[in-house]
Design a protein that fits this description.
Layout lengths: L16 H26 L7 H9 L12 E7 L5 E2 L4 E4 L3 E5 L3 E2 L5 E8 L13 E4 L9 E9 L7 H13 L7 H9 L6 E6 L6 E7 L29 H11 L7 E5 L2 E10 L7 H18 L5 E2 L1 H9 L7 E4 L4 E2 L5 E11 L1
Parallel strand pairs: 10-11, 12-16
Antiparallel strand pairs: 1-6, 1-8, 2-5, 3-4, 3-7, 4-6, 7-8, 9-10, 12-14, 13-15
Pfam family, one: Baseplate_J_C
Protein name: Bacteriophage protein
Family: Belongs to the Mu gp47/PBSX XkdT family.
Length: 354
């Protein structure tokens, strides 16, 4: 602030009232400009955030995928005919607790198996087969310690905002949903936990639609592959019923598909591709090896799919981005081709040689 613009003012000292006013007014102007900038970002879906982004999605019928609880089954040793009621609380290792969703009675073999659902939603509830299960409140005739007999699946965290934004932008860029190939992909991606999807029209004959899915975050311990049996929706009578993750996807798509389409949901078949990398010299350290592994995993995740071909430019580009002084990929030496339509090339073992 110039004192020349203030009648009667001469020199302004460091801690003068006018100096304080100048800083306060400058701060207020800065906050106003920042608020106007925030308002401008909410005006378009590619920069909107929070509830405003959800509003843009709702205009196209795209909602944020909520966190979902995992479910599975547990088995306990028990005296024959001993019952375990619905709503019983079971502790699963160090992960958390689950609640029985049905009552069950021990059979003649001395075992009692019943379905349970994780108490809280999230991917951490996807516990593997064999996890220790413990009754929180002991019941006479039932051994308190048991095991997970069917791996927990279906648990997913709240959808990441950027992944949600990508689906919204896709919805604005495309027309209505009428059963095109991309529609099946979009329907699958809208299901909690699903991160990648592909479609194979007429994959199992005329009129069939084969949908392949991956759950990279929810099923990270299994490499992202669905846990369950391939098949169709519960209401579909023309094909055997799926189970696990595949059934969840099939049931969701069944309500959206064209009425005559036979939708079959499948897990891709892993086709591991081993690498031999040499010439790292002094950079052949554990840190460098971990960076290479992560880069190749990411490259295959972006480029691969059921029936896909992955080219050397894909993994060379990923390794070049690490700015390694030197390296040589001895194997594979050429494009990696999926052996069948349902097979998907993934990263196998990496051998590092001098």
């Amino acid at each position: 602030m110039q004192s020349a613009n203030l009648p009667g003012a001469t020199n302004i000292t460091r801690f003068s009232v006018l100096g304080v006013f100048a800083k306060v007014w400058a701060g207020m102007a800065h906050l106003h400009d920042a608020y106007l900038d925030w308002i401008a970002k909410q005006g378009v879906p590619w920069t909107a955030t929070g509830e405003n982004l959800e509003g843009w999605g709702n205009l196209k019928g795209v909602t944020r995928k909520a966190a979902s609880p995992a479910s599975g089954a547990v088995t306990f040793q028990a005296v024959a005919n001993t019952a375990l009621p619905i709503g019983s609380e079971i502790s699963l290792g160090n992960v958390g607790t689950a609640i029985t969703t049905e009552a069950a009675t021990a059979d003649g073999t001395g075992q009692i198996t019943l379905p349970v659902r994780f108490s809280t939603p999230g991917a951490n509830g996807n516990v593997p087969l064999g996890t220790v299960a413990t009754l929180t409140n002991p019941i006479i005739g039932v051994q308190s310690s048991g095991l997970v007999s069917t791996a927990f699946t279906g648990g997913a965290d709240l959808e990441d905002e950027e992944a949600f934004r990508a689906r919204i932008l896709t919805a604005y860029q495309t027309a209505g949903k009428n059963g095109r190939a991309q529609d099946y992909v979009d329907w699958a991606l809208a299901i909690p936990g699903v991160t990648r999807a592909w479609v194979n029209p007429d994959g199992f004959g005329i009129g069939s639609v084969v949908v392949y899915v991956m759950l990279d975050n929810a099923n990270a311990a299994q490499g992202g592959f669905p846990i369950g049996k391939d098949g169709s929706a519960t209401a579909e009578k023309r094909y055997h019923t799926a189970s696990g993750d595949q059934l969840t996807v099939a049931n969701a798509i069944n309500d959206l598909r064209p009425v005559t389409a036979l939708v079959i949901v499948c897990a891709p078949i892993a086709q591991p591709i081993d690498f031999i990398i040499s010439g790292l010299g002094d950079d052949n350290t554990a840190t460098t090896q971990a960076a290479i592994s992560n880069a190749l995993n990411d490259a295959f995740r972006r480029a691969s799919g059921p029936g896909a071909t992955v080219y050397p430019s894909t993994w060379n580009g990923a390794l070049d981005a690490l700015n390694l002084p030197q390296y040589s990929v001895q194997s594979p030496s050429g494009p990696v081709i999926a052996e069948t339509v349902g097979r998907m090339p993934i990263l196998g073992k990496i051998s590092f040689r001098n």
